[in-house]
Amino acid sequence: MSVWLPSAPCTPGACIEPAGPVTAPPRAALRTAAVLLLLGAGVCLLPVGRAVPAGAVRAWSRWIVRAAGVRLRITGPAVPDGGVLLVANHISWLDIALLAAVRPARMLAKAEIRRWPVAGALVARAGVLFIDRDRLRALPATVARVADALRAGRAVAVFPEGSTWCGRAQGTFRRAAFQAALDADVPVQPVRLRYRLASGATSTAPAFIGEESLLTSVWRVVSTRGLVAEAEIRPAVLPAAHPDRRALAHASRVTDPLEAHPRHRPPAAPLAWSPIPVTPVAVAVAPASDSLVPVPDAPVPGPVTPAPSPLPVPGHAPVPSPRRSDRARPDLASAPTAARTPPRTSIRTSVRARVADTVGVRRLGRPRAVAAPATGTPAADD
Which residues contact 189 (CB under 8 A, 6 or more apart)? Predict the structure, then answer.
């Protein structure tokens, strides 16, 4: 596999979907003949391709699209004059005609085309630039040739994905061609290509993917009824605002976030938010409906003082309490029972009672056991 020719996971069996109503075979055959006739006329004019006016090239490109039974729709701002790098996603063999309808440009094609018997010499004389994707050492020279064409005020069209995709999923942009835009200091013009049906749904019928032959793809296109080709011109990207070709390629991506393949979606922006302070509101439980009703803040009653225990019976010495609080404070062991801290269970019950009185609830679950009053017997009191 070539280093500069990434393989797309799209295949005809998995990605090509039925297009619904089809054109009658005789009419499809006439469309095929018209497309081949226009392509033949273009091949004959390749040796003098640079001398053909840009308006004639645009008209010829539109005729090819219309001859295939496809309606053409171009939207967006006008492409700037002078040197510009046209980049677009790659779906079909019709993409070349769509870009030429936007603005005639010199294509960057693979070096294998140059070795074709007759067409290779013709496209070379027409100004097509070639890239050898099997030789990494030849890449700087190719980038330099593209930069020279851009400095001369020519437009160069590139498909940075390096392979055709079905139109629903898309690949990433290779960064080599964007270095030429940085070196020549020319803008990058992204163009988003789509193929839809008359109903507006995305169509994969024009996709030229996998091991499918060109004639099979052409016949499927001319047989599809109501096919629409869209070329959306995005705002130009200036190289001065991006430090390197990686950032320039990322800014020039023409992938829509809603239709992109999950692997190629741009990272989401970090969420900017600030916490909102929440003021607690006291609620009361209605006895009948158990609904929560906001009530204003009620004053909290003061601490509840437990009733003092009776004095011990004369003649009995107080026994130290085995509780942890008494062990932590030995000075309380010699104090009378009335001066000791009330049992912890009594304190918890008092706090629970205060909370219940505050929110207006009589009972909050099962009550805790309350310590029994002192009986005067040291063994019973402890």
Answer: 79, 80, 84, 85, 86, 87, 103, 155, 233, 234, 236, 237
Q: Identify the CA nearest to 187 among candidates 77, 40, 74.
A: 77
pLDDT in tens, 211-245: 888 889 999 999 999 999 999 999 999 998 898 99
Query: Who contacts 11 (Cβ-Cβ below 8 Å, separation ≥6)?
Result: 209, 210
Among 125, 85, 27, 75, CA closest to 236: 85
CA distance 16 to 170: 15
Name residue 280's amino acid: P
CA 271 to chain centre: 14
Q: What is the reported pTM? A: 0.65
pLDDT at 285 over 80: no
Tokens representing residue 123 in the block = 């496209």
- State residue 290's pLDDT score: 45
DSSP of 297-363: --PPPPPPPPPPPPPPPTT-PPPPP-SHHHHH-GGGTTS-GGGSPPPHHHHHHHHHHHHHHHHT-S-
Distance spanning both ends of the chain, measured CA to CA: 90
User: Residue 284, SS3?
Assistant: strand
Beta bridge partners of 74: 231
Q: Which two tokens stand for residue 92?
A: 């079909």
Instruction: Compute how many other C-beta atoms are within 10 angstroms of the C-beta atom of residue 282.
Output: 13
